[in-house]
Amino acid sequence: xxxxxxxxxxxxxxxxxxxxxxxxxxxxxxxxxxxxxxxxxxxxxxxxxxxxxxxxxxxxxxxxxxxxxxxxxxxxxxxxxxxxxxxxxxxxxxxxxxxxxxxxxxxxxxxxxxxxxxxxxxxxxxxxxxxxxxxxxxxxxxxxxxxxxxxxxxxxxxxxxxxxxxxxxxxxxxxxxxxxxxxxxxxxxxxxxxxxxxxxxxxxxxxxxxxxxxxxxxxxxxxxxxxxxxxxxxxxxxxxxxxxxxxxxxxxxxxxxxxxxxxxxxxxxxxxxxxxxxxxxxxxxxxxxxxxxxxxxxxxxxxxxxxxxxxxxxxxxxxxxxxxxxxxxxxxxxxxxxxxxxxxxxxxxxxxxxxxxxxxxxxxxxxxxxxxxxxxxxxxxxxxxxxxxxxxxxxxxxxxxxxxxxxxxxxxxxxxxxxxxxxxxxxxxxxxxxxxxxxxxxxxxxxxxxxxxxxxxxxxxxxxxxxxxxxxx
Length: 473
Prior knowledge:
This protein is of the alpha+beta class and about 475 residues long. The chain has helices at about 1-15, 85-95, 110-125, 140-165, 175-185, 240-255, 370-380, and strands at about 45-55, 60-65, 75-80, 100, 185-190, 200-205, 205-210, 225-230, 260-270, 285-290, 335-340, 345-350, 355-360, 395-415, 415-435, 450-460, 465-470. The chain has a 9-stranded antiparallel sheet. Mean pLDDT is about 75; it is low at about 1-40, about 165-175, about 305-330 and about 385-390.
């Protein structure tokens, strides 16, 4: 009876069909000598600390503390979706809307029909090169001629293949592309979805990417300052945020990404083909980030497009952790970035496609927030950035923590790189502000500052305080 009740409770809190039973052996988290209660971890709504000197920078904390509306914190197993050839093939065909796919990696066409498509596209480029290169007419004449000649040579090469291909192969696939994927664990292709530019499709061992931007516009890039919160002026877009979110979720579900939920949405300005067009006239899109919640607790979103895994000049050594060891090596959680316009999903990047497995712990105790703060300070002052004196023209650097978030993080089980868990974590976000002695092309203001925002500086296991991702940069 007790086991049946426990199993029912796990189903309830994880909102999925998890086979939950408490194992007698290791649970994927260290639970010895911990204190606290998940209902009483006593986190404030904000945290302010006086600036302190650290190794190569000053550290200040004036942060909002974000916690989920939940008193139960489970630990669950995460399974990576097996990146088999059949999965890659199915995913590619869904993104291609069952249209013929061209695979450059094979250097072979799939069918005579596809050769016709490629030749027609190349002829279109020769007639109007600006479709591929908007500033083509500004190039040197020799470069223009060389590009046109390359397209003409490609047409001749495709025509030779076309006429050499037996009629019975028309409309049939060449299966060797999936053996290429099995060997390389990545396959890229293109499909004609009815736009001037063919859609780009890519499936790898760790990610899925789809790019079918509307005619005449490009991606909205976070690092280029093209994202904002202005949803009132959505040029070229009439659907609402809610409709865009539903569109993104529906598309991911088709690919097998059910259960992902939005954690952030912004308005994006799409790079136009006409680079002289003022920013106010750029087409817009919704940019949505989704992660996989557990028991209603959001999975923490770590930066935009692989930010957390950028290489660090120096990370904390295991000796810097109070108990002498890291919980696990740095690891990246599943997330999806989806761009949506009236025509639907025009861009998708799905990292670490995963699914939820069994429930390991229904409810684990968390350390009090005061103890988490102590561990953060111990770690932060031992972090390292390049010495200011060793950098020309740099006069100072400040790391400012402005957001502290309690959420779920996907990580490896301690000591087992191939076993993944979702566990509760505290993540410390902020910005690095570097000051220069004289103005640089990338600095702003009278103090000649350059700011890197939305960095994650430290991730702590909320159960025992061990370091999951230590990186001051």
